[in-house]
UniProtKB/TrEMBL annotation:
Keywords: DNA-binding, Transcription, Transcription regulation. InterPro entries: LysR_HTH_N (IPR000847), LysR_subst-bd (IPR005119), WH-like_DNA-bd_sf (IPR036388), WH_DNA-bd_sf (IPR036390). It comes from the Bacteria. This is LysR family transcriptional regulator. The keyword Cell wall biogenesis/degradation does not apply. Residues 1-58 form the HTH lysR-type domain. Belongs to the LysR transcriptional regulatory family.
Amino acid sequence: MELRQLEYLVTVTEEASFTKAAAKLHVAQPGVSAQIRQLERELGQDLLDRSGRTVRPTEVGAAVLPYARAALAAVAGARQAVEELTGLVRGHVAVGTVTSLGQAVDVAGLLADFHHSHPAVEIGLIEDTSDNLLQALLTGRLDVAVVSLAGELPPGIGVQVVVDEPFVVAVAPGDPLADRTSIALDALAGRPLMCLPRGTGLRTVVDHACAAAGFRPRIAFEAGDPTVLAQFAVRGLGVAILPESLARSYPGELHAVNLTRPKLRGRLALAWRTEGPSGPAARALVRQARAALPERTEDAPA
């Protein structure tokens, strides 16, 4: 019995197909079939039911699968232990970031530094909403992510806040609000607002605050990039709700009005999974990212 045979058995079962398993394993299909046949001859029982349109484990195969997975996991664990003890980190890390990140966190610089420290590690990057990124962390599809925080975090997620700043109302100089220094949130009821899409931290904060104030926001424009919202506001298309630093980066073109009753804040955080398996490459990335991104609090300058 060889580990390769156990790997083929598990993969064929997961893919329910010899063809798909062979493609995933990057080997020829006849080789996969031959190795599993050899394993079946050694055990004296059929492990896979090939009679249907999809391949399924037989009763014996289903009984063998947990042991096959355990053997493969044990080998992977042994390799990880050796790599950690010798300082040799290989493998793959999956990183996520909110689409609306902008220049708030230098993810490119962070990943470049990590690649320089661990050139043998492959790095994958995706952009999505905070809700989807947190779910991907929980399911193991991501190892670390930069997310926008709003509400309670799901269990099993650790975070380090790296940006914490107020949200403000941003309007063009000719807007009726341009002579105001502050405004209560409920004064925006009925005004056309521009905001990030649902699922983002900023939008969640705004929706919850408006609901608590007794009105539903009238969202006239949505954009995944807050700089696009700022440009819409410059053109006088409505009221944009933006991070303060972004609104104030358009001097003469945008007027930032402080939000009161309630004050709204945006927080970006480095997030990672605290429960479940985690490889040495993922742990190394989390350690390096936490060291490179100082933790922020409401009173600390961003």
